[in-house]
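In the design runs reported in the main text, the only information available to the sequence generator was the tokenized backbone. The following block is the verbatim input for one such run; it is reproduced so that readers can re-run the procedure and compare outputs position by position.
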């Protein structure tokens, strides 16, 4: 029996596979410093995505704080970081442009409700249908998107164009220094997360030497107060619902797909399982709250999650610390944070790209079936040029069609005669929509004897197309004055055929096949198979 949302929330922090707190003082330090590193990297991301969505930077920062904090406390996978994301921002921009920011807040609330319902009804379990090639394409595509998004930081704040000359050289040099520190530091010490140390060292160089490179403050002023509760100022009628529901449904789907795929990725890295349904509920609750407090909503962020995991963050403390640090930046430390050079944060994100991209893909693609290689490339390309949800759905559809085609060609039959002269077709392979035509071609109605047995011991009747194929064959044999019976039905096949009204004999087949029971077929139960 599925649990209620309150039950999910009540058991979230104490979940067996979700450690709430570290177990030692050094671990506390690692978790908190990891959270600080993530918070520093969240600032330009949240601001940039707010600009993409066409809203005030604080709307993005509030979303990063609220979504990050709530999912950290009750999410399905400790170590994951959530906040405002570009995948959602690109969908929001048209809504904000046409109807205004208040409609965005209402949409975020409805988005959260839909995500909670997805968790309550355990729709997250369908992520198991995502094949591994789709996961590889998702990871690689998102790594490329993260890398490309950093190019925006190379703009000159004064002119709006890309940097050139000495500022560009300085920017590239500082990015390189940041990446080198992150790479070399773990070889000497792990007392401080390497990304945090790199940000601190590069910031000290820039501020101490007064180097003319873009800083966080050049993006936007991040100082502000506490987020305030406010009911979205939109008319409560069906017209409003008609406007916001399509956006809410798309945002909910994209948010859950990205969150659950990130959950699977983090679970693989940390070696601990995550709760998909719990994560759906957590994302939904976070977005409902965010919508009422003036945030743009959000979902899991693979880049920041990778920063957290690589910095040693494994428990809820790290993600919660990141959210709290972000709020402190907004309330108290904005002047300091605004002096951090963007080059340091870009360097951190470039290292995330290098660590996230599955470099073994090129080797894997030479060894796996060609259709899997096509799916990897397809999902990667669609992720880069459109959005994650479209890419994943396309990848799953292509994989499913390829699987169906492969199974459709495996239908066959071995025939033999019994002592009493009956002909037995021993069907091999699944009978479903893809193999129904091939199934029909197995039989030789004109040349068969008066008694024909179709043996399903090595086959399964899967869907309505299979039922229609069986009925069609029954009609052909009946019209020829011959009898067709079915043998060795598994319990699920038996139930499917009996529910369709095709079985005349109302006794159960022996699941162990100790006794072979023959079942007559009722023609016309499905309207002649049409």
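Verbatim output:
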């Amino acid at each position: 029996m599925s649990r209620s949302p309150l039950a999910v929330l009540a058991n979230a922090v104490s979940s067996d596979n979700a450690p709430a707190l570290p177990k030692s003082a050094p671990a506390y330090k690692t978790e908190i410093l990891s959270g600080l590193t993530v918070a520093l990297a969240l600032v330009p991301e949240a601001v940039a995505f707010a600009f993409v969505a066409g809203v005030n930077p604080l709307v993005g920062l509030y979303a990063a704080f609220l979504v990050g904090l709530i999912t950290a406390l009750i999410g399905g996978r400790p170590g994951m970081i959530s906040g405002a994301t570009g995948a959602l921002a690109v969908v929001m921009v048209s809504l904000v442009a046409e109807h205004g920011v208040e409609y965005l807040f209402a949409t975020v609330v409805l988005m959260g409700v839909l995500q909670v319902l997805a968790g309550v009804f355990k729709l997250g379990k369908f992520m198991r249908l995502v094949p591994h090639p789709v996961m590889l394409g998702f990871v690689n595509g998102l790594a490329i998107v993260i890398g490309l998004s950093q190019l925006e930081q190379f703009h000159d704040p004064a002119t709006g164009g890309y940097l050139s000359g000495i500022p560009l050289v300085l920017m590239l040099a500082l990015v390189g220094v940041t990446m080198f520190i992150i790479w070399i530091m773990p070889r000497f010490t792990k007392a401080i997360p390497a990304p945090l140390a790199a940000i601190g060292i590069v910031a000290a160089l820039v501020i101490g030497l007064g180097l003319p490179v873009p800083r966080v403050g050049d993006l936007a002023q991040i100082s502000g107060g506490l987020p305030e509760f406010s009911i979205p100022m939109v008319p409560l009628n069906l017209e409003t619902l008609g406007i916001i529901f399509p956006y809410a449904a798309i945002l909910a789907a994209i948010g859950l797909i990205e969150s659950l795929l990130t959950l699977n990725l983090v679970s693989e890295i940390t070696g601990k399982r995550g709760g998909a349904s719990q994560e759906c509920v957590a994302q939904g609750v976070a977005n409902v709250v965010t919508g009422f407090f003036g945030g743009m909503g959000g979902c899991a962020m693979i880049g920041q999650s990778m920063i957290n995991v690589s910095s040693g963050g494994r428990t809820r403390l790290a993600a919660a610390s990141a959210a709290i640090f972000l709020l402190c930046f907004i309330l108290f430390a904005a002047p300091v944070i605004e002096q951090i050079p963007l080059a340091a944060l870009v360097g951190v994100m470039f290292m995330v790209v290098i660590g996230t991209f599955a470099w073994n893909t090129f080797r894997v693609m030479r060894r796996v079936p060609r259709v899997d290689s096509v799916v990897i490339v397809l999902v990667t390309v669609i992720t880069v040029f459109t959005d994650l949800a479209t890419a994943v759905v396309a990848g799953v559809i292509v994989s499913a069609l390829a699987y169906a085609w492969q199974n459709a060609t495996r239908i066959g039959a071995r025939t033999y005669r019994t002592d009493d002269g009956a002909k037995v077709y021993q069907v091999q392979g699944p009978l479903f929509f893809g193999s129904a035509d091939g199934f029909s071609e197995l039989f030789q109605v004109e040349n068969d004897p008066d008694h024909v047995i179709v043996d399903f011991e090595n086959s399964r009747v899967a869907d309505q197309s299979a039922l229609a194929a069986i009925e069609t064959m029954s009609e052909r044999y009946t019209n020829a004055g011959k009898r067709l019976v079915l043998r060795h039905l598994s319990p699920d096949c038996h139930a499917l055929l009996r529910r369709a009204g095709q079985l005349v004999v109302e006794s159960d087949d022996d699941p162990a096949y100790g006794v072979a029971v023959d079942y007559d077929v009722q023609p016309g139960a499905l309207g002649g198979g049409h």
